[in-house]
Structure prediction request, 323 residues.
Amino acid sequence: MPDTITLERLYERVRQAIPPVEWPVFADDIAAILALKRERDAVVLAHNYQTPEIFHCVADITGDSLVLAREAAKTSARVIVLAGVHFMAETAKLLNSDKTVLIPDTRAGCSLAESITAADVRLLRQRYPGVPIVSYVNTSAAVKAESDICCTSGNAKRVVESLGVPRVIMLPDEYLARNVAAETEVEIIAWHGHCEVHERFTAAEVHSLRAEHPDLIVLAHPECPPDVVAAADFSGSTAAMSDYVATKHPARVVLLTECSMSDNVALAHPETAFVRPCNLCPHMKRITLANIRYALETMTHEVAIDPAVAIAARRTVERMLAV
Prediction:
Protein backbone atom coordinates (compact mmCIF):
# COMPACT_ATOMS: atom_id res chain seq x y z
CA MET A 1 0.00 0.00 0.00
CA PRO A 2 1.19 3.59 -0.60
CA ASP A 3 2.93 5.13 2.39
CA THR A 4 1.81 8.17 4.34
CA ILE A 5 4.28 10.41 2.54
CA THR A 6 2.78 9.48 -0.84
CA LEU A 7 -0.72 10.28 0.38
CA GLU A 8 0.46 13.57 1.86
CA ARG A 9 1.97 14.56 -1.49
CA LEU A 10 -1.26 13.71 -3.25
CA TYR A 11 -3.22 15.80 -0.79
CA GLU A 12 -1.04 18.80 -1.57
CA ARG A 13 -2.37 18.63 -5.15
CA VAL A 14 -5.97 19.02 -4.00
CA ARG A 15 -5.63 20.96 -0.76
CA GLN A 16 -7.40 24.00 -2.21
CA ALA A 17 -10.40 21.88 -3.26
CA ILE A 18 -10.71 19.34 -0.43
CA PRO A 19 -10.78 20.50 3.22
CA PRO A 20 -8.43 18.59 5.58
CA VAL A 21 -11.37 17.16 7.49
CA GLU A 22 -12.64 15.46 4.31
CA TRP A 23 -9.33 14.01 3.14
CA PRO A 24 -9.41 10.86 5.36
CA VAL A 25 -12.70 9.91 3.66
CA PHE A 26 -10.86 9.74 0.32
CA ALA A 27 -7.41 8.58 1.43
CA ASP A 28 -8.27 4.92 2.06
CA ASP A 29 -9.80 4.46 -1.39
CA ILE A 30 -6.94 6.33 -3.05
CA ALA A 31 -4.36 4.12 -1.35
CA ALA A 32 -6.24 0.99 -2.35
CA ILE A 33 -6.62 2.13 -5.99
CA LEU A 34 -2.91 2.91 -6.30
CA ALA A 35 -2.05 -0.56 -4.99
CA LEU A 36 -4.63 -2.25 -7.22
CA LYS A 37 -3.33 -0.48 -10.32
CA ARG A 38 0.09 -2.03 -9.75
CA GLU A 39 -1.41 -5.44 -9.02
CA ARG A 40 -3.66 -5.44 -12.10
CA ASP A 41 -1.28 -3.64 -14.50
CA ALA A 42 -3.99 -1.03 -14.85
CA VAL A 43 -4.26 2.63 -15.76
CA VAL A 44 -7.04 5.07 -14.95
CA LEU A 45 -8.13 7.46 -17.71
CA ALA A 46 -10.05 10.41 -16.30
CA HIS A 47 -12.02 12.99 -18.24
CA ASN A 48 -11.68 16.67 -17.33
CA TYR A 49 -15.13 16.54 -15.70
CA GLN A 50 -14.07 14.12 -12.99
CA THR A 51 -13.82 15.39 -9.41
CA PRO A 52 -10.41 16.53 -8.12
CA GLU A 53 -9.76 13.49 -5.90
CA ILE A 54 -10.08 11.29 -9.01
CA PHE A 55 -8.51 13.65 -11.53
CA HIS A 56 -5.45 14.62 -9.45
CA CYS A 57 -4.94 11.61 -7.18
CA VAL A 58 -5.60 8.33 -9.03
CA ALA A 59 -5.70 9.17 -12.75
CA ASP A 60 -2.73 8.26 -14.93
CA ILE A 61 -4.03 10.05 -18.02
CA THR A 62 -6.33 13.06 -17.98
CA GLY A 63 -7.88 15.20 -20.67
CA ASP A 64 -10.74 15.74 -23.05
CA SER A 65 -12.30 13.07 -25.26
CA LEU A 66 -9.65 13.48 -27.97
CA VAL A 67 -6.73 13.19 -25.55
CA LEU A 68 -8.26 10.13 -23.88
CA ALA A 69 -8.84 8.50 -27.28
CA ARG A 70 -5.27 9.16 -28.41
CA GLU A 71 -3.72 7.99 -25.15
CA ALA A 72 -5.95 4.94 -24.90
CA ALA A 73 -4.49 3.84 -28.22
CA LYS A 74 -0.95 4.13 -26.84
CA THR A 75 -1.16 2.53 -23.42
CA SER A 76 0.67 -0.73 -22.75
CA ALA A 77 -1.34 -1.51 -19.60
CA ARG A 78 -3.44 -4.67 -19.66
CA VAL A 79 -6.40 -3.02 -17.94
CA ILE A 80 -7.98 0.39 -18.59
CA VAL A 81 -10.41 1.94 -16.12
CA LEU A 82 -12.36 4.74 -17.76
CA ALA A 83 -13.35 7.41 -15.28
CA GLY A 84 -15.86 9.07 -17.54
CA VAL A 85 -19.02 8.09 -19.36
CA HIS A 86 -19.90 4.98 -21.32
CA PHE A 87 -19.15 6.19 -24.86
CA MET A 88 -15.60 7.03 -23.71
CA ALA A 89 -15.14 3.51 -22.37
CA GLU A 90 -16.43 2.13 -25.68
CA THR A 91 -13.94 4.29 -27.58
CA ALA A 92 -11.11 3.02 -25.39
CA LYS A 93 -12.22 -0.55 -26.10
CA LEU A 94 -12.42 0.10 -29.84
CA LEU A 95 -8.78 1.15 -29.78
CA ASN A 96 -7.71 -1.65 -27.41
CA SER A 97 -9.61 -4.75 -28.45
CA ASP A 98 -7.06 -7.01 -26.73
CA LYS A 99 -7.24 -5.19 -23.39
CA THR A 100 -9.76 -5.23 -20.56
CA VAL A 101 -11.66 -1.94 -20.38
CA LEU A 102 -13.73 -1.28 -17.26
CA ILE A 103 -16.43 1.32 -16.60
CA PRO A 104 -17.03 1.74 -12.85
CA ASP A 105 -20.76 2.46 -13.29
CA THR A 106 -22.69 1.25 -16.32
CA ARG A 107 -25.30 3.96 -15.73
CA ALA A 108 -22.77 6.70 -16.61
CA GLY A 109 -24.38 7.67 -19.88
CA CYS A 110 -24.65 10.82 -22.00
CA SER A 111 -27.65 12.79 -23.23
CA LEU A 112 -25.96 13.27 -26.60
CA ALA A 113 -25.19 9.59 -27.09
CA GLU A 114 -28.76 8.73 -26.14
CA SER A 115 -30.25 11.24 -28.62
CA ILE A 116 -29.50 9.17 -31.71
CA THR A 117 -29.47 5.51 -32.76
CA ALA A 118 -27.87 3.52 -35.53
CA ALA A 119 -31.30 3.28 -37.20
CA ASP A 120 -31.50 7.09 -37.22
CA VAL A 121 -28.17 7.26 -39.03
CA ARG A 122 -29.32 4.77 -41.65
CA LEU A 123 -32.41 6.89 -42.27
CA LEU A 124 -30.22 9.99 -42.68
CA ARG A 125 -28.22 8.16 -45.36
CA GLN A 126 -31.42 7.40 -47.21
CA ARG A 127 -32.55 11.01 -47.00
CA TYR A 128 -29.17 12.49 -47.97
CA PRO A 129 -27.52 9.92 -50.27
CA GLY A 130 -23.80 10.44 -50.75
CA VAL A 131 -23.43 13.04 -47.99
CA PRO A 132 -20.67 12.05 -45.51
CA ILE A 133 -21.68 11.59 -41.89
CA VAL A 134 -19.44 13.04 -39.18
CA SER A 135 -20.24 11.45 -35.85
CA TYR A 136 -19.27 13.27 -32.67
CA VAL A 137 -17.31 11.03 -30.33
CA ASN A 138 -20.22 11.45 -27.88
CA THR A 139 -22.08 8.60 -29.58
CA SER A 140 -22.43 4.85 -29.15
CA ALA A 141 -20.21 2.41 -30.99
CA ALA A 142 -23.25 1.38 -33.03
CA VAL A 143 -23.72 4.97 -34.26
CA LYS A 144 -20.02 5.32 -35.00
CA ALA A 145 -20.19 2.13 -37.04
CA GLU A 146 -22.84 3.68 -39.30
CA SER A 147 -20.81 6.89 -39.78
CA ASP A 148 -17.90 7.86 -42.01
CA ILE A 149 -15.63 9.57 -39.49
CA CYS A 150 -15.67 10.75 -35.89
CA CYS A 151 -14.78 14.11 -34.42
CA THR A 152 -14.43 15.77 -31.04
CA SER A 153 -15.20 19.34 -30.05
CA GLY A 154 -11.47 20.04 -30.38
CA ASN A 155 -11.07 18.88 -33.96
CA ALA A 156 -14.60 19.13 -35.43
CA LYS A 157 -13.87 21.93 -37.90
CA ARG A 158 -10.66 20.26 -39.07
CA VAL A 159 -12.43 16.92 -39.54
CA VAL A 160 -15.32 18.49 -41.48
CA GLU A 161 -12.98 20.33 -43.83
CA SER A 162 -10.70 17.30 -44.24
CA LEU A 163 -13.45 15.53 -46.21
CA GLY A 164 -13.17 18.00 -49.08
CA VAL A 165 -16.91 18.07 -49.80
CA PRO A 166 -19.41 20.96 -49.90
CA ARG A 167 -21.90 19.39 -47.47
CA VAL A 168 -21.76 17.02 -44.49
CA ILE A 169 -24.13 15.62 -41.90
CA MET A 170 -22.90 16.26 -38.37
CA LEU A 171 -24.46 14.50 -35.42
CA PRO A 172 -25.77 14.39 -32.78
CA ASP A 173 -25.04 17.81 -31.19
CA GLU A 174 -27.06 20.55 -32.88
CA TYR A 175 -25.18 23.37 -31.17
CA LEU A 176 -21.72 22.01 -31.94
CA ALA A 177 -22.81 21.61 -35.58
CA ARG A 178 -24.14 25.17 -35.73
CA ASN A 179 -21.03 26.58 -34.08
CA VAL A 180 -18.78 24.74 -36.52
CA ALA A 181 -20.96 25.87 -39.43
CA ALA A 182 -20.31 29.48 -38.42
CA GLU A 183 -16.56 28.88 -38.91
CA THR A 184 -16.52 27.03 -42.22
CA GLU A 185 -17.91 27.29 -45.73
CA VAL A 186 -18.98 23.64 -45.63
CA GLU A 187 -22.76 23.28 -45.36
CA ILE A 188 -23.62 21.29 -42.25
CA ILE A 189 -26.83 19.35 -41.75
CA ALA A 190 -27.37 19.01 -38.00
CA TRP A 191 -29.16 16.52 -35.78
CA HIS A 192 -31.24 17.74 -32.82
CA GLY A 193 -29.30 16.36 -29.83
CA HIS A 194 -28.17 18.60 -26.97
CA CYS A 195 -25.82 18.21 -24.01
CA GLU A 196 -27.86 18.53 -20.82
CA VAL A 197 -24.99 20.42 -19.17
CA HIS A 198 -24.13 22.95 -21.87
CA GLU A 199 -27.61 23.65 -23.22
CA ARG A 200 -28.54 25.28 -19.89
CA PHE A 201 -26.09 28.17 -20.26
CA THR A 202 -27.63 31.35 -21.68
CA ALA A 203 -26.36 34.57 -23.24
CA ALA A 204 -28.29 36.48 -20.54
CA GLU A 205 -26.23 34.67 -17.94
CA VAL A 206 -23.03 35.71 -19.69
CA HIS A 207 -24.12 39.36 -19.75
CA SER A 208 -25.06 39.20 -16.08
CA LEU A 209 -21.67 37.75 -15.16
CA ARG A 210 -19.89 40.47 -17.12
CA ALA A 211 -21.93 43.16 -15.34
CA GLU A 212 -20.91 41.68 -11.99
CA HIS A 213 -17.25 41.16 -12.98
CA PRO A 214 -16.11 43.77 -15.56
CA ASP A 215 -12.69 42.11 -15.92
CA LEU A 216 -14.16 38.67 -16.60
CA ILE A 217 -12.91 36.48 -19.47
CA VAL A 218 -15.61 34.08 -20.65
CA LEU A 219 -14.64 30.70 -22.13
CA ALA A 220 -17.44 28.62 -23.61
CA HIS A 221 -17.58 25.00 -24.72
CA PRO A 222 -18.84 24.64 -28.33
CA GLU A 223 -21.68 22.42 -27.11
CA CYS A 224 -23.21 25.65 -25.71
CA PRO A 225 -25.93 27.42 -27.73
CA PRO A 226 -24.55 29.66 -30.50
CA ASP A 227 -25.63 32.90 -28.78
CA VAL A 228 -23.63 31.85 -25.72
CA VAL A 229 -20.57 31.15 -27.87
CA ALA A 230 -21.03 34.52 -29.58
CA ALA A 231 -21.14 36.27 -26.21
CA ALA A 232 -17.95 34.56 -25.02
CA ASP A 233 -14.36 35.70 -25.48
CA PHE A 234 -13.22 32.24 -26.57
CA SER A 235 -14.83 28.92 -27.46
CA GLY A 236 -13.07 25.60 -27.43
CA SER A 237 -12.87 22.09 -26.10
CA THR A 238 -12.10 21.45 -22.46
CA ALA A 239 -8.44 20.99 -23.42
CA ALA A 240 -8.46 24.28 -25.32
CA MET A 241 -10.05 26.10 -22.39
CA SER A 242 -7.44 24.69 -20.04
CA ASP A 243 -4.66 25.74 -22.45
CA TYR A 244 -6.17 29.23 -22.67
CA VAL A 245 -5.90 29.70 -18.90
CA ALA A 246 -2.38 28.27 -18.87
CA THR A 247 -1.08 30.53 -21.65
CA LYS A 248 -3.14 33.72 -21.29
CA HIS A 249 -3.19 33.88 -17.46
CA PRO A 250 -6.48 35.80 -17.18
CA ALA A 251 -7.01 37.54 -13.84
CA ARG A 252 -10.62 36.33 -13.68
CA VAL A 253 -12.27 33.68 -15.81
CA VAL A 254 -15.43 31.65 -16.13
CA LEU A 255 -15.55 28.28 -17.88
CA LEU A 256 -19.00 27.61 -19.32
CA THR A 257 -18.86 23.86 -18.98
CA GLU A 258 -19.23 21.15 -16.32
CA CYS A 259 -18.54 22.01 -12.67
CA SER A 260 -15.45 19.92 -11.98
CA MET A 261 -13.57 21.35 -14.94
CA SER A 262 -13.17 24.65 -13.11
CA ASP A 263 -12.11 22.85 -9.93
CA ASN A 264 -9.36 20.95 -11.74
CA VAL A 265 -8.02 23.89 -13.76
CA ALA A 266 -8.12 26.20 -10.74
CA LEU A 267 -5.86 23.87 -8.76
CA ALA A 268 -3.20 24.25 -11.44
CA HIS A 269 -3.61 28.04 -11.69
CA PRO A 270 -4.09 29.58 -8.24
CA GLU A 271 -3.17 32.99 -9.65
CA THR A 272 -6.46 33.11 -11.59
CA ALA A 273 -9.81 33.80 -9.94
CA PHE A 274 -12.55 31.44 -11.17
CA VAL A 275 -16.20 32.46 -11.31
CA ARG A 276 -18.28 29.28 -11.15
CA PRO A 277 -21.83 29.07 -12.43
CA CYS A 278 -22.16 25.35 -11.90
CA ASN A 279 -23.95 22.98 -14.28
CA LEU A 280 -23.38 19.45 -13.02
CA CYS A 281 -23.24 16.35 -15.23
CA PRO A 282 -25.11 13.67 -13.30
CA HIS A 283 -23.56 10.94 -15.44
CA MET A 284 -19.95 11.97 -14.82
CA LYS A 285 -20.70 12.15 -11.11
CA ARG A 286 -21.69 8.48 -11.07
CA ILE A 287 -17.95 7.75 -11.14
CA THR A 288 -16.46 7.80 -7.64
CA LEU A 289 -13.31 6.64 -5.91
CA ALA A 290 -15.33 3.88 -4.29
CA ASN A 291 -16.57 2.40 -7.55
CA ILE A 292 -13.18 2.78 -9.24
CA ARG A 293 -11.76 0.75 -6.36
CA TYR A 294 -14.54 -1.81 -6.68
CA ALA A 295 -14.01 -2.04 -10.44
CA LEU A 296 -10.35 -2.95 -9.90
CA GLU A 297 -11.11 -5.33 -7.04
CA THR A 298 -13.74 -7.26 -8.99
CA MET A 299 -12.73 -6.46 -12.59
CA THR A 300 -16.19 -5.06 -13.35
CA HIS A 301 -17.86 -3.75 -15.39
CA GLU A 302 -16.08 -4.93 -18.51
CA VAL A 303 -16.96 -3.17 -21.76
CA ALA A 304 -17.84 -5.47 -24.64
CA ILE A 305 -18.68 -4.50 -28.23
CA ASP A 306 -20.10 -6.75 -30.92
CA PRO A 307 -17.12 -7.62 -33.18
CA ALA A 308 -18.93 -6.64 -36.38
CA VAL A 309 -19.87 -3.27 -34.91
CA ALA A 310 -16.38 -2.80 -33.50
CA ILE A 311 -14.67 -3.20 -36.87
CA ALA A 312 -16.71 -0.44 -38.51
CA ALA A 313 -16.69 1.83 -35.47
CA ARG A 314 -12.93 1.48 -35.00
CA ARG A 315 -12.43 2.60 -38.59
CA THR A 316 -14.26 5.89 -37.97
CA VAL A 317 -12.25 6.62 -34.81
CA GLU A 318 -8.93 5.74 -36.46
CA ARG A 319 -9.83 7.92 -39.44
CA MET A 320 -10.39 10.82 -37.02
CA LEU A 321 -7.06 10.21 -35.27
CA ALA A 322 -5.31 10.34 -38.63
CA VAL A 323 -6.63 13.83 -39.46
The chain has three domains: 4-107+284-298, 113-195, 198-275. The mean pLDDT is 96. The chain is about 45% helix and 15% strand. The two ends are 42 Å apart (CA to CA).
